[in-house]
Every structure is written in C-alpha cells, then in structure tokens.
Amino acid sequence: MADEIMDHEDAPKINIAGAIGEKLQESIKNMDVMSMLRNMVDQVPQDEDAEGVQDKLKDVIEKYNAMTDVEREEFTSKMKEAIVSKISMKLQDPNAFDMSGIQEAIEEAVRFQLMLIGGAIILFVILLVFFGYKLYKSIKDKEVKREEKKKAKQMKKKK
Asked: What is the pTM (predicted TM-score) of this model?
C-alpha cells in the first residue's frame, strides 16, 4: 500500500509561471491598450510621480488621437509586444515570483475540501442510519401492537 502512494517528490510538477505567462500574453493580445491608458489617466494620482506619469500618458493619448489608422495599429501592436516582453522577462526571473509554496497550498486546499466532503458524507450516513432505525422501530412497534390486538380479539372470542 505504501508503494501505491506517491511521494511528494514524485508528484508531477506544474509550471504555474508558464501557464500564467501564456494566459497573460493571450489577454494582452486581446486587450484595448487605449482604454487601459485612459483608465490610468482617469485615476486620482497618489503622489507627484503619479501626476508626472499621468501627464505623460495624456500626451501619449493626444498623439495617438492625431495618428492615422495605420500608425495607430502599429502603435498598439508595439505597445502589446513591449508589455508581453516585459512580463515574460519578469516571469522568467526565478527571483521575481516565489512559487515554491503554491503546489503545497493547492494540495492542502484539496485535502481540506476532501475532508469537508468526507465529513458531509459521514453526517449524511449517520442521519440516514438514524432515521432508518427510527422507521424500522416504528414499523416493528406497529406490528407488535397489531399482534397484541389480534391476540386480544382472539381471547375475547374464546371467552
């Protein structure tokens, strides 16, 4: 039985950073860069650096509005490529994300869910047995009373 259980080291490893990177790249390819920039400009600045960034973003939006359709398409594609490359570099940096505990956290969450389900099943079985026993006892009591009534009638007939 011990051979059947996999050791923690033998468990398949999940490349979470790679999966996150792929999903981010897919999301970035489908996003609207200008609406994202407009949302960033509309936010309330928290300090002077944020105000400076917002001013620069306003300038970018103004220049974007002055561009032709071809230039706009080229600009958005270059922006998306730049964002994807920055995120890819961050995801490939082993120190950027500490994902060592994610597998353990997932396993712990699964164990917890299984324990909850097991507890619910045990509770259900206990309730089923309890009510089944009550039903059985009730039926037996009715049979015993019926038998007693039958015997009482027979006794009356004999007298």
From this structure: 0.41
